[in-house]
Amino acid sequence: MKTKDKILKRINENPGVTSIELSKEFFQTKGNISIHLKKLEKEASIKKYPLENNRKLFKLHPTKQGKEIYLKMKLEALCKKI
């Protein structure tokens, strides 16, 4: 599974996660995570919402399209197990 897909999976499983939390979880730099998030945002798979107390940090949430992609990935993973 690509890093971008893993990030989308994590955002779907934990809406509101921040890029800092993702960088720690995936052992990636904030810059690398930012690149993947920009791609996901450009694809309309995620939406960023600024934190109230820190406008530089964003809560990440899946869009409807992002949720559909995630469900497809889950279904494919289940089919591979069979």
Give structural notes:
- This protein is an alpha+beta fold and 82 residues long.
- It has one domain (3-81): Arc Repressor Mutant, subunit A.
- The protein contains 4 helices and 2 strands, in the order αααββα.
- The protein has a two-stranded antiparallel ribbon with strand order 1-2.
- The longest helix has 18 residues, at 64-81.
- The radius of gyration is 13 Å and the shape is globular.
- The model has no long low-confidence stretch (mean pLDDT 94).
Q: What attributes characterize this protein structure?
A:
single chain; 82 residues; alpha+beta; Arc Repressor Mutant, subunit A; 12% strand
Radius of gyration, whole Å: 13 Å
- General shape: globular
The rounded distance between the terminal residues' Cα atoms is: 18 Å
Mean pLDDT: 94
What percent of the residues sit in helical stretches (DSSP H or I)?
55-70%
User: What's the structural domain tally?
Assistant: 1
Would you list the SSEs in sequence order as H and E? Answer: HHHEEH
Identify the CATH class: Mainly Alpha
Assess the beta-strand content as a share of residues.
5-15%
Task: Please report the total strand number as a whole number.
Answer: 2
**Order of strands side by side in the largest beta sheet?**
1-2
What is the compact description of this entry?
By secondary structure, the protein is α+β, with helices and mostly antiparallel strands.
Record the SSE blueprint.
Layout: H1 3-13, H2 19-26, H3 30-42, E1 46-50, E2 58-62, H4 64-81
Antiparallel strand pairs: 1-2
